[in-house]
Amino acid sequence: MTRKSLALHLALLAVGIAAPFLFPAHAVQFAIFWIFVLFAQTWDTMGGQMGYNSLGNITFFGFGMYICAIAQIALVYNVGEYTAATGAIKVDFTDQQYYAGLALGVFLAAIGPVILAAILSWILFGLRGPYFAIGTLGVAIAAAELTSAWGWVGGGSGIAMPVFPGGPGMRERFFYWACMLAAVLCYLFLRWLYSTRFSLAINAIRDDEDKAEALGLHTMRYKTVAWSVSAFFLGIAGALFGNMTGFIEPLETAYPTLTFGIFMVAMTLLGGKGTLWGPIIGAVVFYTLRELTWTYLLGWQYIALGVLIIVNVVYFQQGILGWLRTRKPEWFGVRIETQPTKVAGK
Amino acid sequence: MKRLVTHSARLGAAIAVTLAFGAPASAADDVITLGSAISITGKYSQEGKNASDGYNFAVKRINEMGGVKVDGKTYKLAVKYYDDESTPARTAQLLERIINQDGIKYILGPYGSGPTKAAAPVIEKYKIPMVEAEGASRSLFTQGYRYMFAALSTSDQYLSPVIELAAELAQKSGKKPGDLTIGMAFENDPFSLDVRQGVVDEAKKYGMKIVVDDKMPRDLSDISATLTKVKALRPDVLAFSGHTKGATTAARQMKELGVNASIVAMTHCESAKLTTQFGAASEGILCPTQWAETLKYKDNVFGTAMDYNKAFLAAHKEYQIVPYQVAQASAVIEIWADAFRRAQSFDTEKLRDALAATDMQTFYGNIKFSEVGNNIAKPMVLRQIQDGKYVVVAPTKYASEPVVYPRKAPQ
Amino acid sequence: MWENLQILGTAPVFNIQLWLNGLSVGAVFALAAYGLALVWGVTSVKNLAQGDFVMMGGYLGYELSRHGVHPIAAIVPVAVLMFGYGWLIYKLIIRRVIQLDLFTSLLATFGLAITMQQVMNLVFGPDVRTLKSGFGRFEMFGGMVDITQIRVIAFGLCAVLAVAMVLFLRKSRMGQAIRATAQDPRAARVLGVNTDLVYALTFSINSAICGVTGVIIAMIWVIQPFYGIAYSVRAFVIVTAAGLGNFPGVIMTALGLGVVEQYGGFVLGAQFQQATVVTLLLVILIWRQLLLRRQRLALQ
Question: I need a labelling partner for A103 at 20 to 30 A (CA). Which of A41, A161, B217, C298 fits?
Answer without folding.
Answer: A41
